[in-house]
Structures are given as C-alpha cells and as structure tokens.
Amino acid sequence: MKFFGKASLAAFTVAASLAMSPVEAKTLRVNVYGDPAMMDPITNSELVSGRILRNIYEGLTDRTPDGDTVPALAESWEPLDGEDGFRFHLRKNVKFHSGRTFTAKDVKYTYETLLDPTSKAGSAVSYLGDIVGAEDVKSGKTKELAGLKIVDDYTIEVRFTKPAVLFPLFPILIMDSGIVAEDGPDWMLKKSGGTGPFMFESWNRGVDVTLKANPDYWDGAPKIDAVRFVIVPHPETALAQYEAGELDVLDVEQANLRTVLRDPKFKDELQIQPRTQSRYMGMNGEVYEPFKDVRVRKAVSLAIDRDGIIKGLYDGAGFPLNGIVTPGVGGYNPDLPKLEYNPEKAKELLAEAGYPNGEGMPPVDITATAPWKDELAYYANVLGSTLGMKVNVNVMERGAFIRGMNAGELAFFPWGWTSGYPDASYYLDQMWTSTSPFNRGRWKNEKYDALVQEALATVDQEKRYALYHQAEQIFIDEMGAAPLPMVAVVALVKPYVLNTEITKYSFFDTFQKTEILDH
Fold first, then answer.
1. Which entry of 10, 85, 184, 442 is 20 to 30 Å from 76 by CA?
2. Residues 111-136: pLDDT tens digits?
3. How many helices and strands in the chain, by DSSP H and E?
4. What pTM value is reported for the model?
C-alpha cells in the first residue's frame, strides 16, 4: 500500500519577498511561557521546544490538524515483502536551510545520532528501539545502524526486530548531516539544520526566539517574513501585551481562562479546542515513601474533585479524563468509568495505609511551573483539609522543573503529555513503561510493560486496541498516577491574522499558511 504526497500550497514567490521593504515586513508575534529547554531535534523533549522546532524541522511523515498521517520528507512508503520493515521513497529537490540537498544520508545520520549514547537524545530515540542494530548503537558497540539501508539517494529501507506497524506515524525530525562538522557542537545556537518553512534566526534568552521565512521551502514559501516567539512567563503579562497590540496571537494559559472566556470583547478572536494532552498527578514513591503504597495513591485521587476543577479553575473550558489516553487518538477507550470523588473513602484508605488523618506522613512538596500556581494551591489546600497531608507549594523555573522530573527527583507534581502522533501508544509507551526515560513518576508494572510491547508488535488494529485497553486498566487499578482533567486549548487571534488556527494537539501547526493583513 502506498501513500502519496499532499498538494503543494501556492508559492509566495521569492521575487515578491525580496521586493518587500523593511517597513512592510510582516512578523507574527506569539507568546510562549518559557525559554525552550533545547533548540535541536536530537535532544528535543518538551512542549515549548516542540512548538518552535515544528516550524524548522520535518519528519518523513507529518500529521494534519485532525491527526491524519500524511507524507512530508517521504513522498510514499510501503511494507517490505516478507519482512518486518518499510521502504520509504524520499522527496526530491528538498533543500536544507544550509543549501545542502536532503538525501537518504541525512535520515541515516539523524537516526544514528539519536541512538548515539553520548547524544542526550530526547523523546524521538524511543521510536528507534526496534530497528535492527539499534541496541548495538545505543550501547556504543558500533556507530552504524544495521537496520537502515540506503538503496539510493532517495530510497531507504528500515528493518525491525519485530513488527513495528506504527513506525510511519512517528515524528522523528530529520537534521542536516553536515551542520555539526561545519558549525560545531553548539550549531543550534547559530543556525538551523532543518528543511521546514522557517529558519532559526536568533534566541535572546528570556526574551524571544525569532524564525525567518524559508523562501525555498519545498511546499511553498510562507506568506509572512518571520515568526517571533515572545517569552512571557506570567500569563497576566501576556494578556496585557495582547490587548496592547504587542502580540498577534495569544496562547491563553489557565490563569487567564476566566478573564478571556467571560469578556465579550474577545468573543470574535477566541478559538477553543479539546486538547489531546494526558494530564496527571505524578506520585514518585522512589522520592516520597508513602507513595509506594497504592492505597495512598488512590486516596490522593479520591480526594480530587475533578468536576469542581473544570468548573472552578478552568471556568468550564475543560474535559474529564478517566484514564491516560485522550479522545481523538487511536486506541482511546470511551468505556472507562468516571473517576470517583469520595473524600470519606479517601480518608479510610489513608488510615488503612497507616496514616490516619495524615499522621506519620512527612511533609511533601507539590511542584510545577508558574502557570500552575493556582492549581498547586488548590491541591495543597484540598489534600491538607481532606487527608491531613502536609503539602507545600513549590513553584520552579521551567527548565529546572523538567530536568528534575526527568531525573526522577520530584515527589509530587501535576503535569501533562501532549500527543505527538495519533495513537494511544504515545501515552502508554512513552509515559509509563518502566524503561521510558519520560516515566517521570517512576511507576512500574511488568504486566503493563508486556501488554504495551505486545500491542506495539500487533498488526491487527482491533487486537492492538484491546491490548491498549488492558494495559490502561492496570494503570488505573494501580493508580500509577492520578488522571487530571484535560484543559481546552484556548487562543486569541487578532482579526488581521488569517489561516492560523489551534488544533487538538494543543497549539498551532506550522505558520506556513499564516497571512497578516495590513492593519
């Protein structure tokens, strides 16, 4: 079965771009709530970085705003006859931002760099583990990935140790194989090594990241000259900047939901979408001893009034999540029972665990970043008044917080994981298998791991989804983390900004199609 390319957009000609005077230059200004934790596709593992890098880098495939998989740097692909693997036919006449031509060697370089044990690779490395020879590269035994064969400059074959039916969905961003040798290990602070519609221009830490349009983009040059991601840590400041005309697009954070949803002046500029983001309360028993007991974890979950959170904290702009897989992705289970809110039962479980009214429980910090401060205060207050837990609110700088979570150093934290491709494995595998580097709560269950791995090797979709459901039920029964409501994606877009819409994947896709009218 072959998959063929999407129709190109009408190109915005280079001549028109060059004729535009500096006064007429059009830059889209959009807020992000912190510095990106990284600026290269190899170490990329968090949301702010991902939002920016999606405009610079591309994978072999892409997804539409509705979650459908479409060709990108690969024009088509098909399974290998009689083998576990795929043959990808790469797109010709694609240029990296350096001017070098994209070929099969760049795919090979990217995969091998991700697997290199010295690369500090981010989330994308988890997609490569089933390729033949991946473990040899990860262990340092070799630098050559045996399971990737370059047939010619525009054809590659990828072979797996077991069926890997989801591989074409995986968002593995491809980078320029010549850029490190040319610009050194800190190349990402100087240039961009992608093929996407925008190119890296500058990063002023704590201020902004600016991308300029790529006039040679294979699918048509952008219709704006640049995107400026303005770093605004405080939601109230971001809203004030939008109202003052200093931002063209506002990613509305939780602290501003009530204001934006209730003020009629924003009505015509408002966009709302359900978010495919699995939100949870992480409880790390390796750091905080009481969380090793499933009864304590269940007591925490039972003490959380999720309907009250949606109504009170999110002003109705939220949706219940009864598991860890969100609606809108393959393998979602709509039949999971609603999570119970039962303070009395929570107290009973805590007493059974040996902590009546919280007695004997050491104090614990509940930690997250500044946009979560109201929610942190709510949890600390509820768990204190309901269960007698001594919970201290700890607001951390974003980069330090993410490093702390990834290192397994934080005991108690609310957070989310946004789907990067439209299948439940993005949550079940990356978030909670015991070997995942992004299992931030350090929950472990061998049967869960086995079910997820079996699902990933199951070709039949119905059977695969059934395995997903079994694994998710184990997680809920064990309360590996307490699911939290999904917050809607809410944005404000100025009337003069066209073809810019939020998606259920939590933010805007690339700004390639965006236009800015004179205003």
1. 10
2. 999 999 999 898 889 899 999 999 99
3. 15, 22
4. 0.73
